[in-house]
Amino acid sequence: MKKRLTSGGRRRYRSSRTSMLALRICMWGCVVPASAHTDAGPAPAYVPARYDVVTGAANRQTVLAGFLSGGSVADLAAVDVDVNGGRRLRVFSFVDGGWDQGVEATLRPDVSFVDVANINGLDRLIAYGAGRLTWFDPEAAAERELAAVISDFGGTSRAEVLHVDITRDLNGDGRDDLVIPHGRGFQVLVQLSGGAVAAALKIGPEGGLDRVYAADGYRHQPWVQGGRFHEVDVDLDGRTDLVFWNQDRFQAHLQDEHGLFSSRARTFTTEVTFDSDDPAFLAAPQEVRRRRLDHQLTGAKQGSVLHSLTDMNGDGVADLVVFSLTIRSMWSVHSAYEVYLGAPTPDGGIVFASEAGSAIRSDGLPFVLGPHDFDGDGQVDMMFTTMKFGFFKTMGMVGRGMLTRSVRMHLEFYRMKGGVYPDEPNATRRVKGRAPGVSGQKSIFHPSVLIGDVNGDSRSDLLVQQGPEELRVYLGVQGPALFTRRPEKLTVPMPSEEYTWLVDLNRDGKQDVLMHHPSTTEPHRVTMLISR
What we know:
Blueprint (H helix, E strand, L loop, with lengths): L1 E4 L5 E4 L2 H13 L19 E8 L4 E6 L8 E7 L5 E9 L2 E10 L5 E7 L2 E8 L2 E6 L4 E7 L13 E3 L2 E2 L8 E6 L2 E5 L11 E3 L15 E2 L1 H5 L2 E4 L8 E5 L4 E4 L12 E3 L14 H8 L11 E9 L8 E11 L2 E9 L1 E3 L5 E3 L5 E5 L2 E8 L8 E7 L3 H14 L1 E9 L12 E8 L14 E4 L8 E5 L4 E5 L13 E4 L8 E4 L8 E6 L6 E7 L2
């Protein structure tokens, strides 16, 4: 895409005429019933249109996507801090086949994090700072009051505005609710009709960690990545409730007929044992992903944690999942992902089996545990990313690391069938992590691994970064193999994994790839691969 100045002096970024035509066709003609893609034929090819947008120079910059101007293609919002500490916002909108810089404004100086939420049917940039939530009005280029609420979530520097995912439809009414991290828990604000929000409900355990989630990275998802709060129907009335573990029991805030959650929690217990409800209690997978070179692991090398509370087998009743880890040495690493099936009780509750109904066992060091539904059958499938150890494997890994600064990692995919996982993975792939070997940096940079439907056939596709200049796409197929054996290869510069994500940029039901290329010496860039 070439950059040029229009007659009005605005910057405009365009792709080739072919890409422009393809995107317009996608926007206007890609509405296809899901049933049209359920046959067992070959997966449609993936040949995306590429767009590049320069978002300006800054030491640190946060990029978000949302339909802020109400168009059919998402806008890009770039937020950074100038030399005087001012919070600068620039919005790039899609006009005549390219993204133009339109609105430019300054947010209040105390803004510490931002997100995009749908408020009263419109996407809005949400800003938090000093006990105030506001939404940005692009027509007036000004902030509007939304709610007064306190959060202690912050980054490491005043010279950065974080992207913190605080939006989630908790009660299933189709409206974005807000989950604001604070201390050991969250303040929950349910969105009402007309765009107002209900009074904040504070939920969280009485003891434990001082904070629910440690801020480390670029895009923060404290509700999901913290792993300590669960959305399940506890009383089996068809409504989702909010549940967390409080020292020795579960506490549930039940949803009422108005979509609000009770301030008084209902408690229940389980015979299933685990050492903690905090995934960070163990040395893996969270800590090994964040570990810096020369830093020792501080998490437990042996123990078990409550991993999730969700309906795993699609029977409408929540199940309990425990993840356990044992690290005796580099040569002896074992983990288990065990599912304890839930069953309804006569008094309208849930009881969990005392023995695991299914389990995935691994002898590799886990880096990622990713739940997905690859085949759309309502059961939770799993993706594991691991490193395999052994004398010869380790010697080979050390040799490759010294020569290429890369390490080999394994993706393993387990498809649940009839509530049971197979003993061996349904599919495997190898990926390369990067080991820079620089003191103070991450010891291993995990490559981007994304799951989503990018070609519109209603099947999950696998996108894997292969080095700094290549993206490999394994399209989803029907059956136990899950993905095509041979990938489609795209040559495109790729940033680190935290700067790469999937988002539907033109509301055609297909996931698009968005990549933010940060730089301290050149203007930041955004690359988008839009599915055709």
